């Protein structure tokens, strides 16, 4: 057999093998229900890159409430909770991140900021001669009380040596609704009241502790049950509870820094 005859036989065998492969892939296998390949067949043993599929899981931010302690700074909290400092500032609408009060509650946006950032309401600027505000009357509604600006000042003004100190619980509003529950504290006396370390108690063991806060004569302060930023609006504080804590007939108790009961108030019925 000559070389030409051998070459012809090899070529013929290769052509026949190719035709058999095409016939098998395009005709015989589909007849038995095997789909045709969607693209070119990768050589045996070759690596085909796999595109990672999204898991579909959504990471939900998990904010943490941090109580400011002596020596706390925004940069330090950012390192402690592994959260960008600007996120902490944005989450709490801080106009002066360098000024933190001991006992102040900060929302730490662990996991990132929520998609919608709460609208910031600017705090009124404290003056050397704050105007007194009449305490809420028993006829005032919860909406009216919420709109009333509480009067106080963080300025280092010496407390008057004389005069009567008369702090009262004026009202407990919105009992049973966490978004409306408010306790109104008023200063009916003649002295500036330093409420640092004072506590407000309900009948179930919940305790709110006042931060560094001074209440002027005839001024008032509002303690909300729900979540919020202390001092926004100025003179308003938040228990940061997710459920209501007050009920009809329950007694609210206000104690001074030494633990003495200063005032009590029984939640009235509707």
Can you put this structure into words, describing what you see?
- With 270 residues, this protein is α+β, with helices and mostly antiparallel strands.
- Among the domains are: 64-108, Roll (Membrane-bound Lytic Murein Transglycosylase D, Chain A), CATH 3.10.350.10; 142-266, Sandwich (Immunoglobulin-like), CATH 2.60.40.
- Helices cover 19% and strands 19% of the residues.
- It contains four helices and twelve strands, in the order αβααβαββββββββββ.
- A four-stranded mixed β-sheet has the order 3-4-9-10. Strands 7-6-11-12 form a four-stranded antiparallel β-sheet, with no helix packed on it.
- The radius of gyration is 36 Å and the shape is elongated.
- Residues 41-57 and 116-159 have low confidence and may be disordered.
Features:
270 residues; alpha+beta; Membrane-bound Lytic Murein Transglycosylase D, Chain A; Immunoglobulin-like; four-stranded antiparallel β-sheet; 4 helices; 12 strands; 19% strand
Summarize the structure.
The chain has helices at 3-31, 74-81, 85-92, 142-147, and strands at residues 64-67, 105-108, 167-173, 182-187, 193-194, 199-201, 207-209, 214-215, 220-224, 236-238, 251-255, 261-266.
């Amino acid at each position: 057999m000559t070389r030409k005859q051998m070459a012809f036989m090899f070529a013929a065998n290769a052509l026949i093998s190719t035709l058999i492969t095409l016939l098998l892939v395009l005709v015989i296998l589909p007849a038995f229900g095997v789909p045709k390949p969607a693209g070119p067949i990768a050589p045996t043993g070759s690596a085909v890159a796999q595109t990672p599929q999204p898991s579909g899981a959504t990471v939900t931010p998990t904010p943490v409430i941090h109580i400011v302690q002596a020596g706390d700074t925004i940069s330090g909290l950012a390192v402690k909770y592994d959260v960008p400092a600007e996120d902490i500032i944005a989450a709490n609408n801080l106009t002066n991140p360098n000024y933190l009060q001991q006992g102040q509650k900060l929302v730490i946006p662990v996991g990132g900021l929520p998609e919608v950032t709460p609208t910031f309401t600017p705090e009124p600027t404290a003056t050397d001669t704050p105007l007194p505000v009449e305490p809420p009357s028993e006829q005032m509604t919860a909406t009216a009380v919420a709109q009333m600006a509480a009067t106080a000042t963080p300025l280092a003004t010496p407390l008057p040596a004389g005069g009567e100190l008369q702090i009262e619980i004026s009202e407990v509003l919105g009992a049973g609704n966490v978004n409306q529950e408010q306790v109104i504290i008023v200063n009916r006396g003649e002295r500036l009241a330093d409420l640092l370390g004072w506590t407000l108690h309900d009948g179930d063991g919940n305790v709110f502790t006042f931060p560094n806060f001074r209440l002027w004569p005839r001024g008032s302060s509002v303690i909300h049950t729900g979540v919020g930023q202390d001092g926004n609006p100025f003179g308003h504080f938040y228990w940061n509870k997710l459920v209501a804590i007050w009920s009809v007939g329950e007694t609210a108790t206000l104690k001074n820094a030494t633990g003495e009961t200063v005032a009590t108030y029984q939640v009235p019925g509707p």
